[in-house]
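P.,

For your records, the input lines for the assembly:
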Amino acid sequence: MMQVADLKVSFYAGRKEYPVIRSVSFEIRQEEILGLVGESGSGKSMTALALMGLLPAGAKAGGKIGFGGKILTPGNESDWSGVRGREIGMVFQEHAACLNPVMKIGRQICESLEVNGIASGTTAIKKTRRLLERFGIEPSKLRFEQYPHQLSGGLRQRVMLALALACEPRLLIADEPTTALDLTIQAQILDLLYETVREKSTSLLLITHDLGVVARMADRVLVMYAGKIVEKGSVVDIFRAPGHPFTKLLLESTPRLDRTLKKGAHILENEQVWENRGCFFAPRCTKRRKICVSTVPELVEIHKSHFVSCFNCKESI
Amino acid sequence: MTEPLLLTNKVSAQYLIDSKKIAIKAVDGVSLQLFSSGSLGLVGESGCGKTTLGRLIAGLLKPSDGSVMFRGRPVVPGQHLPDLQMVFQDPYSSLNPRISIQGQLEEGLRNFRLGDRAMRLQRINEALVSVDMPSDCLSSYPHQLSGGQLQRICLARTLVLRPKLLVLDEPTSALDAPVQSQLLALLLSLIDEYGLSYIIISHNLAVIRQVCDSVAVMYLGRLIEVGPVAKVFNSPRHFYTAMLLDSYLPPDPLLRKNKTSVKGTLPNPLKPPAGCRFHPRCSHAVTRCRTTPPLLREVVDDHFCACHFSG
Amino acid sequence: MRNKQHKQIGFKTVVGLILVLALVSAALLAPVLATHDPHLIDTENWLQPPGAGHFFGTDRLGRDIFSRVLYGARVSLAVGILAVVLAVIIGTVLGGFAGYYGGLADMAIMRFTDVVLAFPSLFLIITLVALFDAELWLVILIIGLTGWPRLARLVRGEFMRLRNTDFLVSARMLGSSHSRAMYYHLLPNALGPIIVSATLGVPAAILAEAGLGYFGLGAQPPVPTWGNMLRDAQLYIRQAWWYATFPGLCIFITVMAFNLLGDGLRGYFNPRQKV
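Structure tokens returned:
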């Protein structure tokens, strides 16, 4: 449904290049929920922006994105007109990035419907009302007339979802949609998201650092580190049989209710290093060898549909 | 029977808003105690009052009612002691950007006039070793260190004061998972090494599970369940605690839940429900729940619950 | 990757700084650089246009304008800088207290600030100077005493903003007294706006002084100030263009130099966040 080929994004300060995404290739399939995990700084949010054609000024991008028969070039804003909002919807963590603070909720949704040619006038208003009800933004009559700041965090997130899904896009990209929310509200929002996405056969790219959220929602998972995808596979494979040392580290160091922390699993040898000739995770890897420091590993299929980029991993299968 | 290290006696904190016409009780009559070498977790969602309670305990806020006693003496807001210290959520904003790491570590020692130059230097070096930081970081400035390193420095600058009680407000929320677990393991080791007791405020149940012996669950300013962490999390007595635990997402796709049991949303703190504050969202609510606020009662050993259905 | 704030020293700042340094040096070195005694009257050579002997020409009493301008720089810069220093001290202390303590202290100080701000400063200066017989130190005092409110507001704002940051709360928990919190922790972090405001306050003070001189207040002749030189030059504008032009040009360049520097520093202290 969407193919991302060799996506690269860098920033420049003077002459110096700061690569944020080094080369990332993956696909999002029809009706699937794809999780994208990684630490802060891994490039996952930038990937979301690239796929939405919203790269910040000053970013230099490369690669190609194939979507719905069209080729979209990252960095080339005009490719996305007509696509963004209509065929690709987006939800962010920061409501200020999505919602206009000086426009009433109802009107924002109506406008989106009108601009994208779905409905207009009274039809749009009726549709919006129904959307508000569907997404639990009640009482819909009251909420229609309210401004974003009058709503609680959880309600605002629901509005963002409603707004993003109003035009029934084929793909929804959600960047940390529930990170700032309370546990109980998160549970409700994720349920709503899951149901809606399945019902409308929308694909979802869910970006988060929270492994619990990924485990709950995703069919397949991509693990990013230092601007590259280091592991790709089904959610069960990634969680039950992780291949890459970084994935293992993430899983072992995530605190759980049912297990106490493994002693020693979290000793970090060096903090993150961004310049490297070999594998970027090598400085923190307990199993690094000579080849890890000199050559960059490629993604290799170690198991059916399970890809890992690690020299140690190939041999352990 | 030894005296508790920390005791709060029906402590409340009130905020006046709308030009002093309306009062919100962020913390409403909370009574807690913590003994030496204990580790308590405070959990709850937005508006539950856990952050405010933390500040009351640390002496950063004046109670509108009730009292906070530390080592048998009342905590005076504004007057701080080396014994009672705090670590904050955001390591980047907890450190004065213009002061070197050495300066940060010396600050407490200098202000409380503890020891001479030699003793201070020794304590600083010991603290750095305890938090796993190299001694050459002393000449660095905060902007040169990462979040995890900064949080460890924040810990170290309290350790040099040999505190008896440490209050940590969401200490790992701003950090990535690997760095988080490093910090938590560190905390555990400090209990023995420094004879430390701590109170951790967190919205993350799993973090509390890892590093606390006991846990206190708060809802809309009230304490609704307190007890040993394993018991409370494995067999919660309060329906809200159960709802909270049900909302927890384990990092395991095979434990996936299809639909959450969460009902309703947090009521307006300006108009909290009468009786049991949780009753509008509770599927077991009866008339009594709507009229009479339940008291915190001991259900089993050390396990307390504020619900008409328990005990 | 954390957003790193890049502090760039812009071209503007450098130009401003060079000009300011040049002006201050010229003023300090006036005795060395002056070609003539600024008080020397030479009625035979009155109103000479700029030439080899007199770079800026001579005035109605035959005094060398170039030398007078140099000595005038001393007055203007002294008044400008000293008045600003006074304003900064008063403004920082009052604004700092107001911002830090809040509540009653804040209200009281701010109302007082409003009162001072309400006075039209130029008229106040003129009135006071006329009343008390113009002397240089009095001019400095008065300009300083009327110029602090703006800075006080600024410092108050900064202190209020910084008052609730975690690092300050931590400092208090670590035993910092209120005074230590204010001068050791908060002040260094509020320096940026203070420096900018001070730098931009100098041209205002200089202009105030020039204005006074123009009205015949402030330092009296024979002490040359740019202001009273302009006053002298009024009658002769048609015949001797150089008489008013050079002092005027000096005022212009000085004001511009400090404004450039101040503007540039403002950019330096508020860097835009780049990747």
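Two observations worth noting. The CA atoms of residues 140 and 293 of chain A lie 58 Å apart. Chain A has eleven helices and twelve strands.

Regards
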